[in-house]
Amino acid sequence: MEIRGITRDEIELNVNGTRRPAVVCSSDTLLRVLREQLGLTGAKIGCENGDCGACTVIVDGVPIKSCLMLAVEAQGSTITTIEGLRDAPIQQAFIETFAFQCGYCTPGFIMLSHALINRYPDADEKVIQEWLQSNICRCTSYEEIGAAVRSVMGKGGGKSG
Ligand code: FES
Ligand code: FES
Questions:
Q1: Cβ contacts of 36 within 8 Å, gap of 6 or more
Q2: Structural domain contains residue 10
Q3: Enclosing domain of residue 133
Q4: 0.85 cut: is pTM over it?
Q5: In the list 2, 43, 59, 129, which could disulfide-bond 64, CB 3.0-4.6 Å?
Q6: Which of 46, 67, 84 is the last residue of a domain?
Q7: Nearest ligand 1 atom, CA 45
Q8: How confident is the model at residue 156 (pLDDT cuts 50, 70, 90)?
Q9: What does the pLDDT look like over 27-80, one tens digit per residue?
């Protein structure tokens, strides 16, 4: 279909266990469609350049920076946003370790951490650090975020080093 001279397509996205229709241009990012059409504003707009990770969602079990994925590319995949997490242990762990201040980066870090814990529940410190380097927090020291991840993995004490 064409709206105001721009060709758009009807697509369907499988988000948080629900099939959601959307009308998109081929250039629309998954981030923009999640936020602006589906009302899922947990994924945040940061750099929109793949650097900060504020927009992280999980696609087929893999953490994805949704500003770098086109909505049309996400068809047929299983997408989970922060709104789709229900009492995931990492959420409580973030609270207990005070792993946030302003909170803007928090949904992205929680999605990144949730995927890490699911994929590598026995990850060593090197792997944890490598994964967490994917996202940026301007408030915390990162120590608390790492502590939250380690606490869910049962690596007592929480602190690194
Ligand atoms: S907004 Fe996607 S990586 Fe920064
Ligand atoms: S808590 Fe503010 S950017 Fe991370």
A1: none
A2: yes
A3: 89-152
A4: yes
A5: 59
A6: 84
A7: 1
A8: low
A9: 999 999 999 999 999 999 999 999 999 999 999 999 999 999 999 999 999 999
Q: How far is the CA of 152 from the centre of ligand 1 (A)?
A: 25
Closest ligand to residue 94's CA: 2
18 plus 73 within the same structural domain: yes
CATH number of the CATH domain containing 13: 3.10.20.30
Domain count, the chain: 2
Q: How far apart are CA 47 and CA 57, in angstroms?
A: 15
- Compute the C-alpha angle 90/96/101, nearest 5°: 90
Q: How far is the CA of 101 from the centre of ligand 2 (A)?
A: 5
Residue-level pLDDT at 113: 98
d(CA 143, CA 91): 16
pLDDT in tens, 1-36: 777 777 889 999 999 999 999 999 999 999 999 999
CB 53 within 8 A of CB 64: no
Q: How many CB atoms lie within 10 A of CB 82?
A: 22
Distance CA 11, CA 21 (A): 6
Q: How many A from CA of 49 to the centre of ligand 1?
A: 5
